[in-house]
Amino acid sequence: MSINLFQAIILGLFASLSSMPGLGGTSIGNYTLGRPLIGGLVCGIVLGDIPTGIMVGAAMQVVYIALVTPGGTVSADVRAVSYIGIPLAMIALKSYGLDPASAEGTALATSFGTMVGTIGTVLFYGTATMNLIWQHMGWAWVDKREYDKLPLVDYVLPWISHICFSLIPTVIMCMAGEPVVNLIKEKLPMDGIPMKTLFTVGALLPCVGIAILLKQIVRNVLDFVPYLTGFTLAASMGINLVASTVIAGMFAMIIYKLKMLELRKPAAAASSAAAENGWDDDEEDI
Amino acid sequence: MAEKKLSKKALSSGFHRWYYGNLTCFSQEHMQTFGYLCSMLPLCKELYADDPDKMAESMDTYRTFFNTEPQLGAIIVGVTAGLEEARANGAEDVDGETINGLRAGLMGPIAGIGDSLVVGTVIPILLGIAMGMSGGGSPMGAIFYIVVWNLFAYFGMRFLYFKGYDMGTKAVEFLVGDIGTAIREAVTTLGGIVIGAVSATWVSVRTSFALYNEAGEAYMVLQEKLDSVFPGLLTAIFVIFCWWLMAKKRFSPLKVMGLLVLIAFVGVLIGFFNPGLSY
After folding, report:
1. Residues A197 and A81 in one domain
2. ipTM summary value
């Protein structure tokens, strides 16, 4: 499997749309096209192997399931993860002849993708810094009351930043990826320590992604109970994800009703107390 | 003078500009400021069509730094659209300072709720379901996510924007009030359970450690022992270990990843981890 220039440019365009300050907008760009699972579908279509793309994307999605903000909680950039990491991981899987659905395939894809994603933070800072130029021009136009030029600053000029820091880097890295992957394969045998470590890291990395998400939900140890319940549903009882969500929805409904009862009760108690007081006042008046 | 009323068209244009452009020209210095300016532009143009000085005064209000969770933040943009209309009608208690005070006061709490509820819970739940539908490389899951998430995001943001415009700050009270709190707690539990199922399905940390008798037969396979206690125990331990490092020891995610590389390396050396591959 290799990537030709035309395919690389399409991937580069998707990278421009999908990054955190991406030109697809927040909901469509970052939170749809930027998610590795969707990136996997796009890369699968572009490279002509949808099942491999989806499997690699899903594997990488676990690592980046939480809030991904470059320079913030996760030092990664979704455009690099989804449109450089996934295609390279796909090439690596083909080159090593691994089944993308196997644990080894997932581990290899995850290590490759995460490495690229971490390096991709540079692209984020590049884009954000270059946007300062357009914003500087924007302030000048606001001062001169040329407000009609504002959409140019917000919607058009950032394309230049993205051509420099999303499109061109994606094209270069995707095109250069195949020889690099082959070089790694030649120099580092799979049963050697470095590759064994790489595969093991790939299996461990998703734990970080899950843990980042748990950091937002778990405040004390008791909050681990829902998490472990879900874990038990899938690992011990073999219930699939969609069915687990239905069970989870049942628990959520119970909690919502309980919480509403708890919140409404003091209010109801307060109003009845006020009514009693009112009664007392009346008596005193008499 | 007739009371000025924003047209449906101007409001709709203001909404779409926010929906699309809230972060398109992002820099660390101004973040969503330009997205905000562009969103208010059609509204200000309509309200102050005949008065360039008032137009400039109004646009200057939105030069102030703004950053929040942009999707839930649509409600703030809606609230300011309503306030701007009131200011154009000469409301005495609405000036640039009150509008900016309100924006600054709301952007923090809305960012907190939006990051934990929308980005930290709703999106992972949808992705979890989508991954469940991706077995064997099927594109069904990805298509499910694209459709459901985008309908939810577009109509959700539209609802919030117009609620903000109609009800003003009362709309925000709904989010932080009783019903909002109850919904948040319920959705957080839902998220916790789904994430548990996602990690049991998609994360697999396994050890190759075993003890052998003199005949070379393994009499103690650690992975089997651990799984007989709680299936997937080692995976759960590693997830909780990572959580503990970040939540209690204040490790950055990158530092945790570095530590995992070290653990993997040492684990491979002592034979605790072995992917068992060769070619």
Report:
1. yes
2. 0.88
Domain co-membership, A64 together with A147: yes
Contact yes or no for B264 and A26 at CB 8 A? no
Shared domain for A178 and A195, answered yes or no, is yes
Residue that is last in its domain, among A169, A192, A217: A217
List the domain boundaries for chain B: 8-197, 205-270
Distance in angstroms (rounded) separating the CA atoms of residues A63 and B149: 20
Who wins on pLDDT, B61 or B253?
B61
Chain B interface includes A78 (CB < 8 A): no
The string of DSSP codes covering B220-258 is EEHHHHHHHHSTTHHHHHHHHHHHHHHHTS---HHHHHH
- Per the structure, the count of domains in chain A is 2
Determine the pLDDT at residue A282: 45
Examine the domain organization and report whether A245 and A203 are in the same domain: no
**CA–CA dist B111, B68 (Å, integer):** 5
pLDDT band at A285 (very low <50, low <70, confident <90, very high): very low
Q: What's the CA gap between B133 and B110, in Å, rounded?
A: 32
Q: What's the distance, CA B74 to chain centroid?
A: 13
Q: Are residues A210 and A260 in the same domain?
A: no
Residues in chain B with CB shorter than 8 Å from the CB of A252 are 186-187, 189-190
Name the residue range of residue A71's domain: 5-217
Chain B: residue whose CA lies nearest to A98? B277
Chain A residues close to B200, C-beta within 8 Å? 230-235
Share of chain B above pLDDT 70, in %: 98
Half-sphere exposure (Cβ direction) of A109: Cα atoms closer than 13 Å: 33
- Distance in Å, alpha carbon of B189 to nearest chain A alpha carbon: 6
Touching check for A65 and chain B: CB below 8 Å?
yes
- The pTM for the full model equals 0.88
**Which residues of B, range 100-129, sit inside 8 Å of A by Cβ?**
115-116, 119-121, 123-125, 127-129
Residue A184 has pLDDT above 70, yes or no: yes
Distance between CA atoms of residues A7 and A43, nearest Å: 9
Q: Which of B53, B59, B277, B279 to mutate to test the interface with A (most CBs of A within 10 A)?
A: B277
Q: Which residue has the tokens 């009499």?
A: B219
Using a CB–CB cutoff of 8 Å, tell me whether A249 touches chain B: yes
| Residues A278, A171 within the same domain | no
Q: Are A108 and A203 in contact (CB under 8 A)?
A: no
Last residue of a domain, one of A217, A236, A254: A217
